[in-house]
Amino acid sequence: MNMRPDYKNWMPKGMVASFCGGAAGSWIAALALKSGRPQGAVRRVLTAASVAAGCAFTGVSVWSYLMYRAFDYNGKRKMSKQIIEGIASYVELQKGEVCLDVGCGSGALAIAIAKRNPDAQVIGIDRWGKEYASFNKPLCEENALAEGAENVTFRQGDATDLDFPDETFDAVASNYVYHNIPSKDRQAILLETLRTLKKGGTFAIHDIFSVGKYGDMNAFVKKLKEMGYDKVSLIDTTDGKWIRKSEAGWMGLSGSALLTGIK
């Protein structure tokens, strides 16, 4: 049987549909109110409110559709695939070594790392919450099977409280996860991930490292170096590396960068 992986889309199709539904409903309501009789102050206010909602929903619908197209693994831009393969290229494992992918979603990054390092093992963990209902453990396993990646496994996990002892893994990786976690201190979540990294192990963590979401990341890089981490870098990925500056702006991805280094 010829299976193809299905990594879904970082912009869920259901979300795009809901925005389009909101736009359609708002415009229908506006037309019904405008053509209704008799016209009065209340009806005019409701009509104006429906038009405003229609404009807002239409704008968001267009934005979400363009996001969906950009992230589509089978589309023309394939931004998701480019980012995933780019992160995976930073993870090099020796025979018998183990990598942890935090927030594995549909399994894309864990599988990409596993395929690049066939003699190593990769573990992908995720909470698989309702926000991304189409992502789940069976989907990850089906994708691994379709890709022929036998050296990857998946399990339920919490990025804020990893169920692994200190210095368990030879590498840790993640993509666009921590900024989605409600927290006043996302740097602490990064440290929780790095806690599980062995001495000499490498890390490659990609996220939106903006000041609003993370605070001063330059200070965090300095802190890691003071803690003994080596070759720590925060690499801008919106300079055309994986994302163009023009895309980062309208897609809300400004601040995207790759945090790498060695423990």
Describe what is shown at a glance:
The chain is of the alpha/beta class. The chain folds into 2 domains: 59 residues; 184 residues, Vaccinia Virus protein VP39 (Rossmann fold).
Strand order of the largest sheet: 3-2-1-4-5-7-6
Instruction: Give helix % range.
Output: 40-55%
Number of H/I helices: 9
Category by helix and strand content: alpha/beta
- How many DSSP-defined strands? 7
CATH topology of the largest domain: Rossmann fold
Radius of gyration: 22 Å
CATH class descriptor name of the largest domain: Alpha Beta
Strand content: 15-25%
What separation lies between the terminal Cα atoms? 43 Å
Low-confidence residue ranges: none
- Average predicted confidence as pLDDT: 95
Number of domains: 2
What is the correct CATH architecture of the largest domain? 3-Layer(aba) Sandwich
Shape: elongated
User: What is the assigned CATH homologous superfamily of the largest domain?
Assistant: Vaccinia Virus protein VP39
Describe the sheet with the most strands: 7 strands, mixed
User: What pattern of helices and strands is seen along the backbone?
Assistant: HHHEHEHEEHEHHEHE
Characterise this structure.
The protein has 263 residues and is α/β, with parallel strands linked by helices. It folds into 2 domains: 13-71; 79-262, 3-Layer(aba) Sandwich (Rossmann fold), CATH 3.40.50. It is 44% helix and 19% strand. The protein has helices at residues 13-35, 41-71, 79-88, 108-116, 137-147, 186-195, 211-214, 217-226, 245-251, and strands at 98-102, 121-126, 152-156, 169-175, 197-208, 230-236, 256-262. β2, α5 and β3 (152-156) form a beta-alpha-beta unit. The mean pLDDT is 95.
